[in-house]
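dumping this here so i dont lose it
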């Protein structure tokens, strides 16, 4: 069967549009995608890169490099590379919401997104902590944010939260939900029959037996014991500073970190180009680039499209797997 993916470039002043133009040069990937975007933004990015771009209607067949199917979402103000305009926020989010809606109703099999500029969207009057949270709210489902590259998958217990709020957000119920969704996704989407998951502590040295914090003793350990009794293979709570040592990582299928900057720097420090951002728990597969809007290099042609290419390939694989299982 033919897999159809909705592709949303994200912030028009960032590198998202030019990555979509580069994607259009790869017929093996572009043939899977339909962009939800402003045609002028994509044509401007193609012109800056001096690459061919022909925008087709949403049912057209891709026959050569440089073609991309498009569903139009026009923005009110012209794009200047590197300078997000909050006035465009409603249009940017309208494209995202429409693409997600088309995934929910089965018109599309999965969603691939470029980077969104969180501050510009909030400055435009839309309360937005992240795409992961918005998609989960729209779908009425729970979610887990997982970033993955070959050899390492990191899922997060809390996502876009001020550090001050993290400890209060970690409850036994929340941890149980995150671990259950992660284990289910490892089985269903990644085909790992009996996944082994490492769970990090919250405090230095995983609390040092309660001398450096009590969340491990009061919340994490009891939750892990409860879930082990239900058959999950969980190791932890592990001290975060040593859990990522290569000989330890080799024994896990995924690491669950308590907060954003506990887990993601480890993954991103080995290169932005190999990793993708996966939303687990939605009714459809969603995969995003792992990097941000890179306003500092937008329009220069220096942005590598590898994470977007990997996101499309990964989303197509998940979508095909789900269609086969259905
Ligand atoms: N998937 C998403 O929607 C994400 C959005 N963001 C948003 O992006 C904005 C900027 O975030 P930053 O922390 O500055 O991170 P960033 O990822 O945009 O930039 C960090 C550094 O990596 C470079 N870089 C990023 N992507 C690259 C690529 N494809 N090729 C070459 N170099 C690349 C940038 O030039 C910069 O030097 C923020 O508003 C943030 O919220 C951040 C992460 C993910
Ligand atoms: N650090 C990941 C990130 O900011 C992207 O998350 P989301 O906007 O896709 O939820």
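and the seq i came up w/
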């Amino acid at each position: 069967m033919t897999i159809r993916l909705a592709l949303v470039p994200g912030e028009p002043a960032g590198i998202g549009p030019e990555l979509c133009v580069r994607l259009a040069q790869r017929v093996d990937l572009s043939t899977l995608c339909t962009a939800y975007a402003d045609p002028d933004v994509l044509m401007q990015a193609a012109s800056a890169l001096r690459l061919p771009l022909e925008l087709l209607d949403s049912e057209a067949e891709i026959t050569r490099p440089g073609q991309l199917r498009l569903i139009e979402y026009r923005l009110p103000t012209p794009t200047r590379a590197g300078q997000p305009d909050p006035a465009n926020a409603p249009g940017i989010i309208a494209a995202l919401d429409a693409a997600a809606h088309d995934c929910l109703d089965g018109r599309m099999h999965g969603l691939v997104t470029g980077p969104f500029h969180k501050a510009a969207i909030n400055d435009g009057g839309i309360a937005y902590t992240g795409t992961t949270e918005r998609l989960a709210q729209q779908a009425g489902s729970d979610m887990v944010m997982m970033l993955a590259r070959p050899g390492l998958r990191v899922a997060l217990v809390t996502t876009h939260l001020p550090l001050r709020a993290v400890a209060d957000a970690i409850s036994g119920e929340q941890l149980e939900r995150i671990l259950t969704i992660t284990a289910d996704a490892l089985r269903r989407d990644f085909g790992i029959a009996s996944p082994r998951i490492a769970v990090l502590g919250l405090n230095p040295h995983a609390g040092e037996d309660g001398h450096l914090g009590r969340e491990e003793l009061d919340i994490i350990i009891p939750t892990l014991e409860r879930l082990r009794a239900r058959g999950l293979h969980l190791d932890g709570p592990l001290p975060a500073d040593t859990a990522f040592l290569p000989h330890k990582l080799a024994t896990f299928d995924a690491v669950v970190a308590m907060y954003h900057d506990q887990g993601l720097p480890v993954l991103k420090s080995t290169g932005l180009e190999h990793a993708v951002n996966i939303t687990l728990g939605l009714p459809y597969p969603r995969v995003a680039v792992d990097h941000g809007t890179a306003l500092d290099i937008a329009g220069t042609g220096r942005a590598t499209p590898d994470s977007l290419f990997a996101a499309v390939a990964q989303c197509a694989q998940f979508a095909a797997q789900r269609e086969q299982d259905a």
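Residues 116, 130-132, 264, 277, 288 surround LD2JLWAY (ligand 2) (CB under 6 Å).
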